[in-house]
Amino acid sequence: MKIARLGSIGLLALAATTANADTCVPGLPEAHANNAVAASMSDGKAALFSFAGLKAGKTWRDTSRAAYMFKAGDTGWTRLPDLPVEGGRLAATAEAVGGKAYIFGGYSVAEDGSEVSRAENFVFDPASGEYSRIADMPNPVDDAVSFVYDARYIYIVSGWHNEGNVRDVQVYDTTEDRWFNASDYPGSPVFGHAGGIVGNRFVIADGVAVVGESEDGKRQFGTVNEGWMGIIDENDPSTITYRRLPQLPGRGHYRMGGEGDAEGNRVLFVGGTPNAYNYNGIGYNGEPSKPQKHVFAWDFTKDNWVAYEDKPIASMDHRGLVKWHGDWITIGGLVEGRAVTGEVTSVAGKVTVCEQTSGH
Predict the structure, then answer these.
(1) How many domains does the chain have?
(2) Nearest in space to 300 (alpha carbons), one of 196, 201, 225, 155
(3) Residue 82 to residue 279: CA distance in whole angstroms
(4) What does each C-alpha distance from 210 to 165, 256, 275, 277 come to in angstroms?
(5) Distances in Å between the alpha carbon of 120 and those of 54, 65, 108, 165?
(6) How far apart are CA 54 and CA 35, in angstroms?
(7) How far apart are alpha carbons 142 and 239 in whole angstroms?
(8) For residues 335 and 351, is the Cβ–Cβ distance under 8 A?
């Protein structure tokens, strides 16, 4: 297929026209990759959240419980209480509903390298500064895609469960603190995919699947090049109608940042890598994974994929993409050389990095 290519104006048209103290965001106090991120409102100000992830050492000892919040106009991130779990969490996902941040799933890594998908989930209330445990995920997954529908339901699509990928679409009802299943994801069951929602339509792209076995019986992992649209029944949030989207050029990507953009009527995808890896950035094929700069979207108005100019910095290992004052940003991740970063990267170039101060 052909993919429409737009210059930066296609992305900047939705960005803020000026950068000032309210639009700048400092880097995290400590570099983190694979951190779950969300954006919300707190005390009438736009707020960003970062939960857990991986610190600079990139070993099992460096899995993190750290949590941070940044409010518009502040000069630094506020350190929040740690996520209340044993050890750290990788590949969790976070969403904001009603001014609170919800954190789901992820996995823990033991000293012997064993990994366990975790069922416990939490809601963090900025007003009280406290976490509350919410209903456990019925089928615990990590490296899944999440999004919010109807300002109430949080969908968790596919992901890895201990020994393999699942097709489950699990839905958490924030009003009733309960889970129910929606129509299964029809694409290749994957982990590390990306996606987002606009209205009742969502798009899922790429990810990593089990693609075979080696001669000694070990599973082989590889990125898949797939795009799917799901349409949620407005009368029944458990019913989803799916449509296979045209295939994108090139290889599929892993751990991109993704999010729905209601104003642009599209779902954006940024960064990632075509070489599947575990948490340290070394590919399952033994080669270091290289981050990408690309920016593309499924445009609902054009009913097609659209490519934009590359973002300034190549990055991967993202657990979300958030909107900040008309621009789109990633928070942390892995950059060139598999380095863990705490920097905030603007996709359209309108959000500046302000200096971090101490005392938070």
Answers:
(1) 1
(2) 201
(3) 21
(4) 8, 19, 13, 12
(5) 19, 14, 12, 19
(6) 7
(7) 23
(8) no
83 in any annotated domain? yes
Greatest Cα pair distance, the chain, in angstroms, is 58
Q: Mind listing the pLDDT tens digit for each residue in 21-57?
A: 567 889 999 999 999 999 998 888 899 999 999 999 9
The CATH number given to whatever domain includes residue 255 is 2.120.10.80
Identify the domain containing residue 147 by its residue range. 4-346
**Helix, strand, coil percentages, rounded to 5, for the chain:** 5, 50, 50
For 273-282, write each residue's pLDDT tens digit. Answer: 999 998 999 9
Q: Residue holding tokens 């994974």?
A: 289
Start-to-end Cα distance in the chain? 50
3-class secondary structure, 82: coil
CA 314 to chain centre: 16
- Contacts of residue 229, Cβ cutoff 8 Å, sequence gap at least 6: 201, 202, 203, 242, 243, 245, 298
Mean per-residue pLDDT of the chain: 91
3-state SS string for 273-313: ECCCECCCCEECCCCECCCECCEEEEECCCCEEEEECCCCC
